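Incident log, structure service

09:12 report received: a user says their structure output differs between two submissions of the same chain.
09:20 pulled the input from the user's history:
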Amino acid sequence: MAMGRRREVQQDALWVATTQIRNAGHVFYDKLNALLGAHEFDRWVEDRCAGFYAPVMGRPGVPPGVYFRMHLVGYFEGIDSERGIAWRCADSLSLRQFLGFAMHENPPEHSTVSRTRRLIDLDTHREVFTFVLKILGENGLIDGKTVGVDATTLEANAALRSIVRRDTGESYEDYLRRLAEASGIATPSREELAKLDKGRKNKGNNDDWQHPHDPDARITKMKDGRTHLAHKAEQAVDLGGEGAVLHVEVRGADEGDTQTLGETIVGTTEQLGELADDAHTSDPLHEQWMSEVVADKGYHSNETMVMLDEMTIRGYVSEPNRGRRNWRGKAEAREAVYANRRRIRGNRGKRLLKQRGELLERPFAHYLDQGGMLRCHLRGRANILKRLLIQVSGFNLGLVMRRWLGAGTPRELGARFGRLVRCVHALIKSILLPWSSWQSHRRVARGPARPCPRQVAA
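09:34 re-ran on a clean worker, output below:
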């Protein structure tokens, strides 16, 4: 066979039939499209979003089904920005097919996706999240009795050095210069400003400082110890089922876990109530939904334990070591704390706390770390929550896809296929190697090969 040589770039043909461009598609995205099509997702979401588009005049905008699918691509492909999502969808033929675009059609650009996100309100994004939860309920993936609550920080798209005073709008450096001049330093240098700032207390108070372009961001300490502007993402996970995320919310990073637990419980209860009202998921539902809450020691306090008792919810909250407690005048809190202590020391409590470490941290690893949302590329709590709701919806859809295909993401499906190929190769090798070694042993036992009679005569 002759070696082929690369030709120089020539002018493309004027007409190319689409049948000549073969696209087998992607197994994962084809199954996901079939899942959404079976529940008539496009028709449902177009009815919900009809009020955000002009009825008669105007250029046709991005269909809502395409907009939400592009954000699902961002989760499944691990792309953090909308610009990267738009580029990836324009580059891949299988993703074009997933979005429903022909070969001669171009997917939306990132600016169009951003404008559509601002166009569709937050309540519609919540309805899409609930729509996906109903799909999980139909497939029997939601139990809803035991719910785990956890929170993490999201790095904001804002620099800490750009904060300004809330009252005067003065920058941080100008504020330090004014303090230095008031203390007697006429022309302070940067070293003197840093020395002056080092000894001040409560210098990063969120009541005094904000970012001019992202007022919702709060000064907080991150998981790795850095101080940064950030947001707080809090989730409620179904520990009794397959680990589906039942509720997610973006809150201020300076709000404590004990302050936001009540709102998360109320939001999760409302979400489960909407699932109970659905006709398709009425059979597997339990009458004791949201009857148990599992959380880490950051949520433990006297007020939290009393609140859970008033809600008739059994709490399995890890208790920090606070030493000897003084319960004088706190009989109700003492009973609630002691009851929680007895539960977490029992066999079921130990099992739930162990399960919390597995099922509560896994969603964060999927839709934040691998999904590319540990650092926000959006500003404003509402915009971040819109993106986060679709990210979590993609994670929940991955639970259904894992039941169908054995993999929850395209990368996991490719890895499973690679492991299957390696296993088949190892199996064939294990069969052929004993056969080849047996053949070589047989040749050694028979001795050297006898010469051919014709060679002997010659």
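09:41 both user submissions now match this output. Likely a transient worker issue. Closing.
09:42 reviewer note: DSSP finds 17 helices and eight strands in the chain. Residues 124-163+211-321+330-410 form one domain.
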